[in-house]
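Protein of interest.
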Amino acid sequence: MKHQTKSKSIAVVGPFSGPRAVYGEMLKKGVLRANVNIAKPLDLEFYDDMGDPLRAKAIAEEVTTSGKVAVVGHFNSFSALEALPIYKGAQIPLLLPASTNMNILSQFDNVLRFCANDELQIRIVKEYCLHHNFKIGILLHDQTSYGKDLYSLFLKSKGFLSIKEFSNETLKNVDFVYFAGTHYNAAHITKRLLKMNYQGAIFLSDDSYTDEFIQLLGKENAKNCLVVAAQEDYEQTSYLATKYLIDNFEREDYFSSIVEKIDHGFSSTGENIQAGWSLKTIQNKKFVEVKNH
């Protein structure tokens, strides 16, 4: 199916309100930065899914009837998973700046991911543990779909690590705690661990890589926190996704030009092969990259 019109109407979908709004702001900044000072700017329409998968599904249905030819967003993985069958049916490509879940690209072929995935996120934590001779840890999650999925992925691929159940007693004898969940829940669990006088490493999943997480920690000593951070932050991946659309808009078959991964920076499944993760600690209320981890 070819798009016969030269419409440049793009949907940008993300959490522009609610508890995940800090990520919606990153999305908006990156998209708008890509769309300025160009000869033929995109016609952008912003949709607020509030990070809610059910709302995301309803928005996807609206997008498919409104003449949009591509979507940048859904920032949250489980919102993307709800929306993707609808976009695929309408032959609308979805460009993901921040959805890291492994199931997205394994189930759908109308997607390009501009960030790294969850499997690589777990790998960098395990590499740090290996390098620092960490052998025993505790895994925690916050009951969100995002947190539970990361928790399960870590548990399945724990390898050389011995994982213990959380208790006051086991906390005294582990090398690390890994928490998978949202940045506001991460701040809560970090404060709790520090009040329990836990002195070991605290790994936090990628949702905590935001200044708002540092603000939520307040005056707590965060020197033991190790936050998984995208090598290119989510504002930058939003910029790259939008620029990719701009660069390919003049092709005759727009849908195919996107999903056939014409850019050699993507794998056959749509993964950005250049994307990766780093670990960052917090010093003087700023993220600082951990070197030689």
